Amino acid sequence: CPRVAAQAFVKALCDIRGVPYEPHWAQQFSVAYDVYVAILQQVRTLVRKGLHRDSIDWRILNNCPSCQTRVIGEKSLPVRMMVAIDRNNSLKRIAR
After folding, report:
1. Cα 78 to Cα 74: distance, rounded to the nearest angstrom
2. Which residues contact 27 (CB under 8 A, 6 or more apart)?
3. Among candidate residues 32, 31, 33, 12, the one with its CA nearest the CA of residue 21
4. Annotated domain spans of the chain
5. pTM surpassing 0.70?
6. pLDDT in tens for each of the 96 residues of the chain?
7. What separation in angstroms does the CA of 38 have from each of 4, 18, 31, 52, 95?
8. Can you tell me whether residue 9 is helix, strand or coil?
């Protein structure tokens, strides 16, 4: 959850809308943002439950450890693991 300076953000919104800033709007924004974050968390929880991904060990049971496990005596591959943190854009550029 990103940290937002509520007063500065509300002042910027007031400036964009062309209305004078009033101090109670920062408190109202803070409450509304907290409600928004709570709704997002509840939706995530319901989606995980609906997809049966809410158990404590779901990630451990459904990962792919084969590329991370080293077997003694087995020849290692030239590329041990290919990972992209840019939505797989860098893997598209690899020559085939």
Report:
1. 13
2. 6
3. 12
4. 6-93
5. no
6. 455 688 888 999 999 999 999 989 989 998 999 999 999 999 999 999 999 888 888 877 777 666 667 778 878 778 777 776 776 666 666 655
7. 16, 30, 11, 21, 45
8. helix
